[in-house]
Design brief:
0% strand, 78% helix
Length: 307
């Protein structure tokens, strides 16, 4: 029984950890940019040795691909910088809710970048999400509006690097792409810190608990989660994984209530708007699955089972 569902369980452990990353943005008592700098550094080092130990590809030989990955690595850095800034300016619930709109951004980016067919149904989903964001924004304090805008921009960045990575992964191993992007993100933020004269010993001044959470964030929530997701996707398929990932904001909001007591800071409108957005994100995933089944259906495979 357990062996049948172990990959489903592992998938939800991964999603739970990703949901916890938003909580860590509040728990770790250092600046948002510092959190990201340590996260990508720890992720790069741990991923480098993990890939070497597992014998997975680490190199990108094509110079044009390296240049493209360099650009995407900067987008990854900007995504995480804005994500944690949004959380520290408001709440973990708001930050992760904004991130849940990533899937809807992908629906209009894929036709532009991947040359896929434009979907008016998905476009309508996006319009309804705008309504959901309006409901959410009416239920938050005016001081959190900047965090909302930053969070939505972070989601756009997440959609951009997701689609670009999907394009790059057609010819380049995902392990090599991720390793390079972590290194590039670290380099990019280091340049910013150097310009701001922040690359000093003060950068490493933190409590023991902050260091422990940073190690957990970089190793477990980033390196391990990435490697485990590759294995899970092989067993369960890309659709099952992508649809299940939509539960990430649900986990974050549920965790934020007992850990951060954010229920005291959020109104009913926030939760109604959140529910609308989450339902639409899931509906979009189901719609994509039905569309894929319809386009791939042929008489020769009509007796094959669906995963």
């Amino acid at each position: 029984m357990f062996s049948k569902y172990k990959y489903h369980l592992l998938l939800h452990v991964i999603i739970f950890m990703w949901g916890f990353t938003g909580i860590l943005g509040k728990i770790i008592q250092i600046d948002a940019l510092n959190i990201v700098w340590f996260r990508v550094l720890i992720a790069f080092v741990s991923l480098f040795f993990a890939l070497k130990w597992l014998g997975l590809p680490r190199k990108i030989n094509d110079s044009k691909t390296r240049l493209k990955v360099f650009g995407v690595g900067i987008i990854v850095a900007v995504h995480w910088m804005t994500f944690y800034t949004s959380i520290q300016l408001s709440t973990a619930s708001l930050g992760i809710l904004c991130l849940s709109t990533t899937t809807l951004h992908v629906t209009w980016l894929e036709p532009l970048i991947m040359k896929k067919r434009f979907s008016w149904v998905e476009f309508c989903f996006g319009l309804i999400v705008v309504l959901g964001i309006y409901i959410v924004s009416s239920g938050i304090h005016a001081s959190h509006l900047n965090a909302l805008y930053i969070g939505l921009f972070s989601a756009l960045c997440a959609a951009l690097f997701s689609v670009f990575n999907a394009k790059l992964a057609e010819e380049t191993p995902a392990s090599a792409i991720t390793l390079h992007e972590m290194g590039i993100a670290f380099f990019f933020i280091s340049v910013i810190f150097f310009a701001q004269q922040k690359l000093t010993s003060d950068l490493f001044k933190m409590s023991g608990s902050d260091l422990g959470w940073l190690l957990f964030l970089g190793i477990a929530c980033t390196s391990f989660a990435f490697l485990a997701t590759i294995e899970v996707m092989k067993k369960l398929g890309a659709f099952t994984v992508s649809l299940s990932i939509n539960l990430e904001p649900v986990y974050t909001i549920l965790l934020a209530i007992p850990i951060l007591h954010e229920d005291k800071m959020l109104s009913g409108n926030f939760y109604w708007g959140s529910l609308l957005i989450l339902l639409l994100v899931i509906a979009n995933g189901i719609y994509k699955r039905l569309r894929e089944e319809k386009t791939s259906y042929t008489p020769k495979n009509k007796h094959q089972s669906l995963d």
